[in-house]
Design brief:
By secondary structure, the chain is α/β, with parallel strands linked by helices. It has helices at about 25-35, 55-60, 80-90, 110-120, 145-160, 195-200, 225-240, 240-265, 270-295, 305-330, 340-360, 365-375, and strands at about 15-20, 40-50, 70-75, 95-100, 125-130, 175-180, 205-210. The protein folds into two domains: about 15-240, Spore Coat Polysaccharide Biosynthesis Protein SpsA, Chain A; about 240-375. It is built from twelve helices and seven strands. It has a seven-stranded mixed β-sheet with strand order 3-2-1-4-6-5-7, sandwiched between helices. Helix 1 (about 25-35) links the parallel strand 1 (about 15-20) and strand 2.
Length: about 375
């Protein structure tokens, strides 16, 4: 099995900084990394996909830096930022690497703490989290960005409840890693979230330390709808099986709901009563099918059957009671076509239901989490 090489022919630490049009940040990030790693035999490695001259700026700054600074410019970038990080692992002169963004939202002053924690030997990855301990996400531009970040984190953890059970911030791009333990051939990087890729596709041990997510130093944020779409694509590729099975059961339930309503109304049952019966039958049926085909690998560590059933049953009824008035508002108040409003509310409801079941209904019991931690 091809693994990341344990490089002993250079420094004991490589700081990998993937960049895309970050020319205004290069000098400051080199200055602060240089100050942070004082006393550590280290190098700074930029992996650059820019078209704004970032690579030339790195070479200019490198000429006067007290720490060795290199740049690898990729004329044909593959795999986005994640692919740049993998290239950095391949080019690094040390097996101990710290990965950080090039916009200074990841404070270089935290590098020694990450490295020291990694050298404790009980983890292969030490990630800096905004959501553990005293960590903060103040660098996110506004309340909307913070809400999107929290929502994306919740959905991601819901899709990988076992692998991410002890990871509060799988979206972070700031972490230390021992690449001698990493099988680079197992990775298929796409887009920004390389830590998620590593944690999901490998069995490396991970722990977290808190950090303050800072404001961008210079330049513009790379967050966009396009990047959001790439992220969703990455999630689908990583966790297609469980989520698709949940969606298939939901689709089956929708067909069953219509069939039950039709059959009962044919028997002269009132439409409202028929709709209520159909909703309750499909809620129960969907839960039983999800137990058998979607979340069966989580049942052993989760709460008992009846507690799982009760939480799922109550949540789905509340969700239905909220979703239908919202859909009505979208049609009558906002003038949206009813098929469009239905599709939107069902899509949102699907994500919410999947997230709730993964993180709440099938959440491991405290004693099961403790046993899992003890084994790592």
């Amino acid at each position: 099995m091809a693994r990341g090489r344990a490089c002993d022919d250079g420094g004991v630490l490589t700081v990998i900084i993937p960049t895309f049009d970050e020319v205004g940040n290069v000098a400051e990030i080199v200055r602060r990394v240089e100050a942070a790693v004082g006393g550590i035999d280290a190098e700074i490695l930029f992996v650059d996909d820019s078209s704004d001259g970032t690579d030339a700026e790195v070479r200019r700054v490198a000429a006067t830096s007290a720490v060795p600074v290199r740049v690898v410019h990729r004329d044909r970038p593959t795999g986005g930022l994640g692919g740049a990080v993998i290239e950095g692992f391949r080019q690094a002169r040390s097996s101990v690497c710290v990965v950080m963004d090039g916009d200074l939202q990841h404070p270089p002053e935290e590098i020694p703490a990450l490295v020291e924690r990694l050298r404790a030997g009980d983890a292969d990855i030490v990630s800096a989290s905004r959501y553990v301990g005293a960590g903060t996400a103040t660098g996110l531009a506004d309340a909307t960005r913070r809400l999107v970040s929290r929502g994306a984190t919740a959905i991601t953890r819901a899709m990988f409840p076992v692998r991410l059970r002890s990871v509060t911030d799988p979206m972070t791009g700031f972490f230390a890693i021992d690449t001698s333990r990493l099988d680079l051939g197992a990775l298929r990087p796409r887009g920004f979230k390389i830590l998620l890729e590593i944690v999901v596709r490998t069995t490396l041990r991970i722990t977290e330390v808190p950090f303050d997510f800072a404001d961008r130093y210079a330049g513009d944020s790379k967050a966009s709808l396009r990047q959001g779409a790439r992220f969703l694509h990455q999630l689908a590729l990583l966790r297609f099986g469980k989520m698709s099975a949940f969606a298939l059961i939901g689709a089956f339930g929708a067909v069953a709901n219509v069939a039950i309503v039709w059959a009962l109304t044919e028997l002269a049952v009132g439409y409202v009563a028929a709709a209520i019966v159909a909703a309750e039958v499909t809620i129960i049926g969907n839960f039983l099918l999800a137990e058998r085909f979607v979340f069966r690998d989580l049942k052993g560590q989760a709460r008992g059957f009846w507690r799982r059933f009760a939480s799922s049953f109550v949540f789905n009824n509340v969700e239905s009671a909220v979703r239908i008035p919202v859909m009505a508002l979208m049609v009558s108040g906002w003038g949206m076509a009813s098929p469009v409003a239905t599709a939107i509310t069902l899509a949102v409801a699907f994500l919410i239901r999947f997230t709730f079941h993964s993180l709440v209904v099938y959440r491991p019991r405290a004693e099961a989490r403790d046993r899992s931690v003890a084994r790592t």
